[in-house]
Each structure stands twice: as structure tokens, then as C-alpha cells.
Amino acid sequence: MRLSPSGLSVPGPSRRSLLRGAGGAALLAGAGIPLLSACGGSGSGSDPKAVSLGSNASDAVPKKAYESVYAAFKKQSGISVDVNTKDHNTFQEQINSYLQGTPDDVFNWFAGYRMQFFAAKGLASPIDDVWAKIGDNFPEAMKKLSKGADGKYYFVPLTTYPWAVFYRKSVFQQHGYKVPATWDDLVALCKQMKKDGLVPIAFGDKDAWPAMGTFDQINFRLNGYDFHVQLMAGKASWTDAKVKDVFDHWAELLPYHQDGFMGRTWQDAAQTLVSKKAGMYLLGSFVAQQFTNKADLDDLDFFAFPEINSAYGQDTVEAPTDGFMVSKSPKNHAGVVKLLEYLGSPAAEELYLKTDPSVVAASSKADTSSYSALQKKAFEMIGSAKSLTQFMDRDSRPDFTSTVMQPGLQKFLQNPKGVDSLLSSIERQKKTIFASS
Prior knowledge:
about 425 residues, D-Maltodextrin-Binding Protein, domain 2, four-stranded mixed beta sheet, SBP, transport, Bact_solute-bd_prot1, TAT_signal, Extracellular solute-binding protein
């Protein structure tokens, strides 16, 4: 089993492990997994020249990228970062007990609901003092993504990437296709692609998480950011007519999805875009990793999911964002503030991206001169968004998305006409899960 970015168990490779490239998480030896604990115990945290940091960056590429950032911070400040790296899977599974015990001063985590969950439980420290210094480095949407439900800041973002509709420029040119601006445009384009012998929308849901991305896009385009966030947080009802409308729209698109998706991974689906057998593919920008030939990669482009409801346009972008939080009682508060102020700087992000170019900087002031055309477009798309979401398994409880939504969406994909009973079932299970601590 691998994990998606929220720590949700999914069969096969996760978005995160593939986004980060080769390396993979370290294999856990033996039957027992030692509990997460603070780096070096209480001693290291009390050193005014050291900050302890709990890291889930166990894959080789991000681990090396973070090391370069922490080394630069030490050179600048004289403060060392004592990193306590755990297997990505283990970190997510034990995060709750870890934060309730004696955690490190700072820890890697995710923006949005996943951050707000621990902030609301009092297991993280507000960092408004840090944001007073770094606030000008980020667009409004990224600021909103870094706040708890109480309006205080709890998160410093470092890297992000968008979900969008990817396509081959040469295929669109060959057939005279235009980028669809509205839902009707999208459906018409799908119909034309089918006539032209193409698979309109590449799709593989063997690992159960890709379909969640399609739901997200249709929901916030149709019902807006606020309703989407409420639904993901368990505060809106899955039997609401607005949700039924999402599935009605999705059902209209299903005939244009690639057949046999239950047995196909996202990588296999991506290959149909690479080989020009498919016209479009809705996925995260990590799809570019499947374009190993430079000419093919240079031919890859994307557009934001089309408008459905003019009241919301295309103002929301799904952009999973990684960064840092502070534990409830950091031992070296002054050092923590200095570290986070550095991590919230364009310089830190630029340094990270030198080692890991699969993502883009969260800061709107980062230097993009070394970015590829795709990275520049992704950076601009995220920076100009009114609101940013994180993907269903980060915007909601992972136990809800893994046990209810993944199988539920697959049931819908295989039987679109049974949606009413499905939504009633989802709502019942949601109430039970969200009522638990």
C-alpha cells in the first residue's frame, strides 16, 4: 500500500510518490513500527542553536531538496535544523498520537482542512507573528489556505502544483480544436473528438483516487468554493440537490471517458495522451512525468476546467500544497520563528526547486526564470486563483475519503443511475465518521 498526500491508503503508487520521482519510501522492517518521537528527545529542542523538525519527506528527491534548504538556513542564521525523518506512510498514520506526545518543534504537513483539523484540536501553535513578516510573499488564496478556522495562521506553504485538463497542442492544431471555456464547449469538444476517432478523456481509476479529482472540479465549478469546502468538512449534506447536480453533470461526461478505467492506472491512461490516442486528461501536473521524450513534453499543455456556473467562473484551482506547521509547545520558539520566516521566503522555495522541479513555488515572488513553460503556466494559474482547494483526501477526513468516497465514486462510475441511494448511503456514513473524534 502507498499513501496519497493526505496519508490516505491507496493501492499502488500514490500521487505523492510519483510526483516526487524515484526513491520511494523506506521499507519498514519487522512486524512492529516504532512510534514517532521527537528528534533527540527534550535535549535537542532546548538548544537555542537548534530547531527540531519532524519530516515525512522520506522519498529521496524531496529529502535531498529539504536538506539543501536547511543547510542554507544554518549558514545564514547559525541555527541547525535537527531533522527527524520518518517513512511517509508511518508519519501520516501516527501524526495524531505524535502531536499529542512530545513532538518536534516544527513538522511537515499539508494546507487546508488537514492543517485546520489539528489547529482546532489545539495541537498546533498559531504563527501570526511569522506571517506579519512573510505575508507579502504570498497571494491571497495561499493566505486563506494557511489559516485555521479561528482566522489565525498555522501553516507556511512551500510548494504546490495544479490539477487541470492536459492535452497535446499538436492534436488540437491538427483537428482545429479550441480550448473549451464552458461546460457546453467541453461536451461539444468531447463529441467531436469521438467522431474523429479519439478517446475524448483519458481515464484510469484502478487506484481509486483519480475520480475524486473529477468530482472536485465539477463541484466547485457548479456550486462554488464555499459549498465545496463545507461538503468536504462534513458540514453540508451529500443528499443536497446541489450534489445530485454534480453527478448529473458527471454522468453527461461519462460516455466520453476511456473504457476499462477500473483496470487502468493513471500512468497507463497517461500513455494514451502521450501516444495521441486520447484528446484530454484531467489530472495533476505530475502527468508530465509520463512524457519522457522532450518533443512530447514540449507539446504538452493544459487549461483550467471549464466554467459551469457563471457565478463562480473558473475562480477556484485545485492545488495541493505542502509546507510546515509548529507543534503546540515548541522548545525553541525564537529559532522556530526564524526558520519559518526563512521557509516562507522566495529564496527557500527557489533552492528547494533546484532539486525537485516536479512542483512550483507557493510564493508569488519566487523567481520563475528557470521554470519550464508548463511550470510557468502552473505558477500563474495558482497565483491568480481566487480560491485554492487541496484535493478531496486533503480537504476532508482521510478515513471518510478512503472508506466511503473512493468505493462510492467507483460505484457511481459503474452504475450512474443508482446515484440517489448512493448519496443517501454516503450521507449516513459521513454522519457517523464525522461524529467521531
